[in-house]
Amino acid sequence: MSVWWAGGYGDDMKGTIPGILALRSTDAGTLALVGTAVETLSPSYLLQRGDHVYAVAEGAGTVDSFLRTGEHTLERDGSAPSGGTWPCNLERVGRGIAVANYFDGSVGLVGLENGAVTGLLDRVEGSGSGPDARQQGPHSHAVLALDETTMLSVDLGSDRILVHRPGLAVAASVALPPGTGPRDIVRHQSGLFYVLSELSHELFVLQWTGSTLELVSSVAVPGAVDGDHDSAISVWGDFVYTGLRGSNRIAMFRTAGETLEPLGWVSSEGDWPRHHVVDGDVLHVANQLSNSVASFRLGSDGTPALIAEPTAAPSPNYLLRAL
After folding, report:
1. 176, 163, 178: which is closest to 215 by C-alpha?
2. Residue partners of 144: CB distance under 8 A and separation at least 6
């Protein structure tokens, strides 16, 4: 059975998760809660490399490292300032781990020694704003490494994707339409990049030119309604899924060359689907406000079908299959 880690919001961020949770897969394809792998404050985003799991402590403003000490247990072995406020996303890049800080829009780089976090190495301040009420300043929300020296960061507050090369130095800036609020980015196996907007309910397709990103196409997210907050992206073969917090839906798309075809949506079977991830032919959805993880079998047409009643888990924000 596979082991999974789950992160989320604790007391300091108005949630109930006690730390990083351990879960296991079941024969049916769902996830079962094992217990708390390690107690820590609001580990709302997780990253794993080797025997180490890295987590943001979003409320405390740190990046923490945890060494795996057993099948379902972790032990903290390092901590460093994130370089900003409300760290929310991590990526291994070059000599350390890059971190997106949502509140002030900065991007930090923390160092590693033998896999453990050591300290803050560098940071770059965010800048810019947008027309939406939530865009009064920069809000870095995601980081994605392209290679050892090139990284992308997505700024929800300024409607931009920044190219950092080398390290954190900003080499280029890609503007999206005002009020977009880009939140998440993934690289598809085709080489194209998908960027999800939290505010305008669109999924953008971009291509890498060798020095920057170029917008190719965009599509409206099916099922989105006023007041929704779009969340994460996951990919299964030719199918792409995004979350809609508010209406609590999972939107579906099919890839069609350099465009995406909207297919519709299904219920997330919970409240506030903040993150989702594909494992084999199963889609797991972390429904933060209903304290549950819902698991869906993916059909040949890409449609998710609920396998069983969602699993109870406190304030899940992020799901990560253990290596």
Report:
1. 176
2. 91, 151, 152, 153, 154, 185, 186, 187
Closest CA to 319 of 284, 290, 291: 284
Helix, coil or strand: residue 278: strand
Q: For the chain, which ranges sit under pLDDT 70?
A: none
Residue 103, sorted as left (phi over 0), alpha (psi -120 to 50) or beta, turns out to be alpha
Longest CA pairwise span in the chain (Å):
49
* Rg for the chain, CA atoms, rounded: 18
Burial class (CB in 10 A: 0-12, 13-18, 19+), 1: exposed
Closest CA to 7 of 274, 304, 255: 274
The answer to whether 52 touches 74, Cβ cutoff 8 Å, is no
- Matching residue, tokens 């965010």: 126
Cα angle value 198/207/225 (rounded, 5°): 20
49 contact partners, CB below 8 Å, separation of at least 6: 92, 115, 323
pLDDT of res. 94: 85
Instruction: Note the residue count of the chain.
Output: 323
Contact between residue 275 and residue 286 where contact means Cβ atoms under 8 Å apart: yes
Mind listing the pLDDT tens digit for each residue in 192-217?
Answer: 999 999 999 999 999 999 999 999 99
Nearest Cα neighbor of 245 from 304, 184, 193, 299 is: 184
The burial of 215, by beta-carbon neighbours within 10 Å (0-12 exposed, 13-18 middle, 19 or more buried), is given as middle
Q: How far is CA 73 from the centre of its chain?
A: 23
The two tokens of residue 294 are 């819902």
Nearest to 79 by CA among 91, 67, 92: 67
Contact 288, 317 (CB under 8 A): yes
Which domains occur in the chain, in start order?
A: 45-175 (2.130.10.10)
